[in-house]
Design goal:
5 strands; about 30% helix; alpha+beta; 5-stranded antiparallel beta sheet; about 80 residues
Length: about 80
C-alpha cells in the first residue's frame, strides 16, 4: 500500500493534493482518479473543465499517470 497524490491543473491553476490516499494497486488508483474528476465536474460551476488534467503521483512526486478531464466528460456535440 502506498500513498498516491491526485493533483489537478489547467494552464492557469493547480490544485495540489497535500494528503494523498492510501492505494493498494494501479486499478484502485485509476478508479479513485475518475471519482475525483467526476466530483469536480459535477460541482455547480461556470468552469470549463475540458482543459483540466489530473496528475497522479507517488510519495516521491514521480508521476504515475495522467487523466484528462475531457476523457471523462466526453466530447461536445
Amino acid at each position: 500500500m502506498t500513498n498516491i497524490y491526485f493533483h489537478c491543473a489547467n494552464e492557469e491553476y493547480e490544485f495540489d493534493d497535500k494528503r494523498g490516499v492510501a492505494i493498494d494497486n494501479l486499478v484502485e488508483a485509476c478508479e479513485q482518479a475518475r471519482r475525483i474528476v467526476h466530483s469536480y465536474v459535477m460541482t455547480a460551476s461556470a468552469e470549463d473543465w475540458r482543459s483540466w488534467v489530473l496528475y497522479a503521483t507517488d510519495e516521491l512526486g514521480e508521476e504515475i499517470f495522467t487523466l484528462p478531464f475531457a476523457s471523462v466528460l466526453g466530447r461536445l456535440h
